[in-house]
Amino acid sequence: MTTTNEIADKISTEYGLTKVQGKSIVEAVFAAITSAASSGSETSIPGFGKFKVKDTPEREARNPSTGATIKVAAARKLSFQPAKALKDALNK
User: Fold this and answer.
1) Would you identify the CATH topology of the domain 48-92?
2) This prediction's pTM
3) Where are the domains of the chain?
4) What is the 3-state secondary structure (H, E, C) of 66-86?
5) Whole-angstrom Cα distance, residue 67 to residue 91?
6) Is 49 left (phi over 0), alpha (psi -120 to 50) or beta?
7) Model confidence pLDDT, tens digit, residues 9-66
8) CB 36 within 8 A of CB 30
9) Cα(52)–Cα(47) distance, rounded to whole angstroms?
10) How many other CB atoms are there within 10 angstroms of residue 4's CB atom?
11) Does the pLDDT at position 1 exceed 80?
12) Which candidate, 75, 81, 35, places its Cα nearest to that of 55?
């Protein structure tokens, strides 16, 4: 697993920045994606993929232990669709 600190360290090493600067860059990217998703916008990163907000309708589900039917409220979810370049890199 890769953490945000590891990503920030890699950026700071490759571009001659301090670790604090690398961390702020990583946090700024995540904040921009979060902000766009909160407003319902799509974020596209060429060569990596797209983050899209999708609405899920209200539905019925079952409690597996009791078998009782419950209602699951409508919600919004964030989905990721990888770019072709990322898919190709994964399947080499």
Assistant:
1) HU Protein; Chain A (4.10.520)
2) 0.77
3) 1-41, 48-92
4) CCCEEEECCEEEEEEEECHHH
5) 41
6) left
7) 999 999 999 999 999 999 999 999 999 999 999 999 999 999 999 999 999 999 999 9
8) no
9) 16
10) 13
11) no
12) 75
Task: Report the C-alpha gap between 43 and 64 in whole angstroms.
Answer: 37
Phi, psi angle pair for 11, to nearest 5°? -65, -45
Instruction: Please report the sign of the dihedral spanned by the C-alpha atoms of residue 64, residue 65, residue 68, residue 74.
Output: negative
3-state helix, strand, coil in the chain (%, to 5): 40, 30, 30
Residue type, 54: K
In the block, which residue shows the tokens 């571009």? 15
Helix axes 4-15, 19-38, angle to 10 degrees: 120
Count Cα neighbours of 43 within 13 Å in the Cβ-side half-sphere: 17
Amino acid letter, residue 76: R
For position 92, what pLDDT does the model report?
87
